[in-house]
Amino acid sequence: MPPPVPASADDAHQQLLDSIDLALQPRPFRNPHWKPSQRRNKNIKQILGEASRKEASVLATQNNSGTSTPMPLGSAMGTGAATPLPTTGSLSHPNIAQAAQNLSTLVLERNLQASMASGPVVTYTNIEAAPSLHPAHQKPYCDITGLPAPYTDPKTRLRYHNKEVFEVVRSLPQGVAEKYLEARGAHVVLK
């Protein structure tokens, strides 16, 4: 039996254990000195929304361009364009900045008319582009699961994702593999 320990030593030992115990110390979830960053990242929805608003404002400024503004009485219209032609050797707009703005408006109007005639233009900001049909961009998918298929069964020519799907492919009855190939458009028809 161990020798008896005085009560004061036992209390001192318990106080030491309580001061060392990490479970009793408060741990806040977040650092109290943490502050959010000043930079605000945008998600794709916000970026596309801003791009569509920008395109809408460009179309609105094109609608409010020289075609809807009444022309001065002394100006002549050459080909029906929105920018007036010079009348008597001097420009009707003595301000160069205003003339450049009229020229840029004319270019925007011509581009808008050309794009409206041919349909939507495919750009990096336009997500209405058709998918690529180039063979290098087509990824093979599993005929059974639809997951990416890095393997092809040489016997049935079915694509499969992993070992479990390969066991299913090998256990398929006669003619079922041809139906899968037919659904993919890779079956061979002998006449």
Task: Describe the protein's topology.
Blueprint (H helix, E strand, L loop, with lengths): L6 H14 L23 H20 L32 H23 L32 E2 L6 E2 L2 H8 L5 H9 L7
Antiparallel strand pairs: 1-2
Largest sheet: 2 strands, antiparallel
Give the percentage of residues in beta strands.
under 5%
Strand order, sheet with most strands: 1-2
Rg (CA only): 38 Å
Query: What are the segments in which pLDDT stays under 50 over at least 5 consecutive residues?
Result: none
String of helices and strands: HHHEEHH
Write down the overall mean pLDDT.
Answer: 74
Q: How far is the N terminus from the C terminus? A: 99 Å
Given the helix and strand composition, which structural class is it? mainly alpha
Number of helices: 5
How many strands?
Answer: 2
Q: Helix coverage percent of residues?
A: 25-40%
Morphology: flat
- Give me the oligomer status: single chain
Would you kindly provide a written description of the structure presented here, covering whatever features stand out?
It is a single chain. Helix content is 39%, strand content 2%. It is an all-alpha fold. Strand 1 and strand 2 (159-160) form a beta hairpin. The longest helix has 23 residues, at 96-118. The chain is flat.
Features:
39% helix; 191 residues; two-stranded antiparallel sheet; mainly alpha; 5 helices; flat
